[in-house]
Amino acid sequence: MSLVTALIYRRRHRLLGRLVQEALAFYGMEVPAACEIGPGLTVFHRGFGTVLHPYTTLGSDVTLYNGVTIGRADPWVPQERSAMRRVVVEDGAVLCAGAKVVCKDGVLTVGAGTVVGANAVLTRSTGPGEIWAGAPARKVGVRDRSPAPGPDTVAAAAPQASTRA
User: Fold this and answer.
1) 101 touches 122 (CB < 8 A)
2) 162: which DSSP letter?
3) Is the entire prediction scored with pTM above 0.70?
4) What is the pLDDT of residues 19-50, one digit of tens each?
5) d(Cα 21, Cα 73) in Å, to the nearest integer?
6) How far apart are CA 162 and CA 105, in angstroms?
């Protein structure tokens, strides 16, 4: 677990919470204590420039790159009058560098295993395992969830040498 990830999980600590928030700010991260974050969070590049809205829920095994923003699409409206309720990033989702996930009304859900591409501006919910890119973001593909080739699968796929006498 990286230092930044460890700090994120300790931001609600009763005594050290404020100090942890300041340490995260030193890394350019804003992760309010109100954010709900599941186990297995991975933050790459120390999360520089990452900002999460207090009404954000991250599932388990979510990956965040630097510059990710999760927030409201109506920042000019006072929070108590905003129609935005929550942004939910489900298990295994990947938000690439510079991705923006902004919710205008209700709950915006980033589906399980979904990838939001670099510098994409996502303004609507996605299904599971989808790939979204662009500004505004649109679905550009479906994520291949097959296992990566490892030593066992490579050996099984290799042709066997015949033994001829």
Assistant:
1) yes
2) P
3) yes
4) 888 888 888 898 988 999 999 999 998 888 99
5) 24
6) 64
